[in-house]
Amino acid sequence: MKEFIEYILQFGNLNQQQLDLISKKATERVLHKDEYFSEAGKIAQEVGFILEGIIRVCYYNNKGEEITKYFIDENNLVVDLESFDNDICSNAYVQAITDCKMLVFSKKDWKDLLDIIIPWEAIVNKIISRALRQKIERRSPLVSEDATTRYLMFLKIYPNVVNRIPLSYIASYLGITQSSLSRIRKNIH
Amino acid sequence: MKEFIEYILQFGNLNQQQLDLISKKATERVLHKDEYFSEAGKIAQEVGFILEGIIRVCYYNNKGEEITKYFIDENNLVVDLESFDNDICSNAYVQAITDCKMLVFSKKDWKDLLDIIIPWEAIVNKIISRALRQKIERRSPLVSEDATTRYLMFLKIYPNVVNRIPLSYIASYLGITQSSLSRIRKNIH
DNA sequence: AATGCTTTTTGTCATTTGACAAATGATTCT
DNA sequence: AGAATCATTTGTCAAATGACAAAAAGCATT
């Protein structure tokens, strides 16, 4: 919980009473490897915060290949925004790729907090828009670089991820095959 | 101006007085082909809205290659958010690729409006976060598809752009060379 | 029409990556 | 330890793309 409070306070100030209100609504939950936090075809009902572990967001393209859109690691929010905000079906799976310890807020509690704690909305907006910008910054350069550069960028962006998850996920994140990734790794070392 | 009002009202309601306040702060400006709306190394000082024309955002990667990050066409906001919001130097060029007719707000006016018109902030947040999400949705799939598919996606996303700008920009957007793009076009037709 | 200028297409060859199959390595379970 | 399972690497060949140069096409100006 401490981690979450610290995280929040990076984006704005709240008094102890407000922080307590928020804390009270959070539930701790363990999500096991391969379990879904939210699924394609369903409406996202929760907001999460990763205390420990790694989650990925993935979907299936029109050829049926599984594509990993991005990874989310410790001390970050997890929510399928498009689906959560607009109550529409998601087209992505949000899946634990290691065992995860999380804080979870139900949609109702999350919305209540936004109504009750006025400055909370501004903070959430900051958090969300920073996260969105970060995603763009991270994904965009992947288009215009060769696979080796992409892999090196991945290592920089997610320094704590590479040894904790299957290479196949990294390959699908980079848009290359597992064997290509394997060859790239061989050439780097 | 009518276009801008319409655009705004998609995201929330404002009364006539509020709309007038906003209108009064907007300046119309023509940006000629190849001119910059904002530049790398400088701090973005304005928010724009494209009435007519096409703008692109580009940067130079570590090999010195020019990479087009995305295109912005009619009836969309133009602002280098990261730079504008945080008063930090941008690392991207925002450049007209056709002659453009725009509405422009100075940073001061833009911020004043946010203070004066309370519901305006929520609307701007919605606009920005929708734009950010759109960017991710558009760029992200480019990573995992082959070049032909990427070109077809480009055509879908920007149906009104392809015949109005040089192919070299499209190639750099797709992360391929001009000659590859040329060959792809040949195979499609 | 002729001239320059820029954009786009082609051609050739080298390199990267994909597809598929097989081999090796790691991990878990009994 | 052995078997089963899954993850990773390697091998081979085909296809896609890049690099570079040259040709062709398009466009504006005269």
UniProtKB/TrEMBL annotation, chains A, B:
Pfam families, alphabetized: cNMP_binding (PF00027)
Entry superkingdom: Bacteria
Cyclic nucleotide-binding domain segment(s): 10-114
Gene3D superfamilies: Jelly Rolls
InterPro entries noted in UniProt: cNMP-bd_dom (IPR000595), cNMP-bd_dom_sf (IPR018490), RmlC-like_jellyroll (IPR014710)
The protein, known as: Cyclic nucleotide-binding protein
Source organism of the structure: Flavobacterium frigidimaris
Lineage of the species this protein comes from: Bacteria, Pseudomonadati, Bacteroidota, Flavobacteriia, Flavobacteriales
